[in-house]
From TrEMBL:
Residues 34-43 have a biased composition (Basic and acidic residues). This is Ig-like domain-containing protein. Pfam families: Big_10 (PF17964), YkuD (PF03734). Residues 1-21 form the signal peptide. It comes from the Bacteria. It comes from Streptomyces beihaiensis. Keywords: Acyltransferase, Cell shape, Cell wall biogenesis/degradation, Peptidoglycan synthesis, Signal, Transferase. The active site is at residues 324, 342.
């Protein structure tokens, strides 16, 4: 005997069983060793099947500002499209066609470099990205719009927002869609073209006092006519002041001034004499002059008059109708009509007397106030003659 106790067969079997049970080996399912199957690794490492296409091509120059930019995905869907201009501002757009296409919401600016970043996913969720840059065209011919009222101004309830373009517009929808107007409180505002070089915007009825109006001109890059592009990007704000609507009765030779619906003064006036009757209808004050010169030759009336110091003059039409002070009219005011089409109020030469009717009315008026003429023998003023679109019905305006 060597002094060692023999291990029993039962004990040895139990030990072997324990080793077998805890060893973690054997022919169990794949991946039990913490490693992915080779075929899964191979699948995950395959490139995405999604194919991104960006037009125009990377590095393109003189790209059209409308219709040229488009992003598409084949064998997958777009998950991110980011287009930025040279200042890092994002270009609005949306993914459409079930995630397979994207295009900008509006035109691009001219002479601007844009960066495009696109990400698409295939059915397996694998991503494919693409980055490009391009530069839009630099136009040889451009246009802008001169606008009224001025930025930051307070105006009367009849004031439209009016744009007069430096070139005739043959793509009116593109230009109109590039002018957006928001108001506080909100009110629908629509635009109307007068000819091909003027676009006015107004609500259905006179503005409510206190309304805040914001106009965004996004004309930069808009093709207004073939080969002629806008170069204007500006935000304009103005506020509607109190309501003042004055009604001139050409037959009674008087004007009733209403402020916020209440009569605040009745003023004797003189309107156009027979053959030179004052336009009828609604007219809006568009310009104001403490003193101005009025020469009949500028309104195709020959040498009828040339008055170098007309006081307290406020323009009502482009064709030369004013409501103004008159120091030469003697006893006409309130009794008979004596002018060549203007509305005259008693005044003094030099306009120094603040107590005469013309001075009072001038001091209590602002651009955008409404002057209505009734009982005139002349027809209603053309809506295009001055800022007088209120003489069109809403259905005509929006047609």
């Amino acid at each position: 005997m060597n002094g060692r106790r023999p291990i029993s067969a039962a004990l040895l079997g139990a030990a072997l069983l324990l080793v077998t049970a805890c060893g973690g080996g054997g022919s169990g399912s794949g991946g039990s060793d913490g490693k992915a199957k080779p075929e899964k690794v191979e699948q995950a490492n395959k490139p995405s099947e999604a194919v991104v296409t960006v037009a125009p091509e990377d590095g393109a120059h003189a790209v059209a500002t409308s219709g040229a930019l488009r992003v598409t995905a084949a064998h997958g869907t777009l998950s991110e499209v980011k287009v930025t201009d040279g200042e890092g501002d994002a270009v609005a757009g949306k993914i459409a066609d079930g995630g397979t296409s994207w295009k900008p919401a509006s035109h691009l600016a001219s002479a601007t470099t844009y960066k495009v970043h696109v990400v698409a996913k295939d059915k397996a969720g694998r991503v494919s990205a693409k980055d490009t840059t391009f530069t839009t065209l630099t136009p040889k011919n451009t246009f802008i719009g001169y606008f009224t009222p001025e930025d930051g101004s307070t105006v009367g309830v009849g004031m439209p927002f009016s744009l007069r373009f430096t070139r005739g517009i043959t793509h009116p929808d593109a230009v109109k869609d590039s002018v957006s107007i928001t108001t506080k409180p909100s009110v629908p505002v629509e635009g109307h073209w007068f000819g091909n070089d003027r676009l006015d915007f107004r609500p259905e009825h006179y503005w409510k006092p206190g309304t805040e109006v914001t106009v965004k001109l996004d004309l930069d890059g808009v093709e207004g006519r073939p080969g002629v592009y806008g170069k204007q990007a500006k935000t304009v704000t103005f506020t509607i002041g109190r309501s003042q609507v004055s009604t001139v009765d050409a037959k009674k030779h008087e004007m009733t001034v209403r402020r916020d619906g209440k009569v605040i003064r009745t003023i004797p006036v003189s309107t156009g004499k027979p053959g030179y009757d004052t336009w009828g209808g609604q007219m809006v004050i568009s310009q104001r002059f403490k003193v101005t010169r009025m020469n009949s030759e500028t309104v195709n009336l020959g040498s009828e008059y040339d008055i170098k110091d007309v006081p307290h003059a406020q323009r009502l039409t482009d064709s030369g109708t004013f409501i103004h002070g008159n120091y030469w009219g003697a006893g006409a005011f309130g009794h008979y009509n004596s002018s060549h089409g203007c509305i005259g109020l008693r005044d003094v030469r030099g306009g120094y007397d603040k107590h005469v009717p013309a001075a009072w009315f001038y001091d209590h008026s602002m651009i955008g106030d409404v002057v209505i003429v009734k009982n005139s023998h002349e027809r209603t003023v053309s809506p295009a003659n001055g800022l007088n679109g209120w003489n069109m019905s809403w259905s005509q305006w929006t047609k």
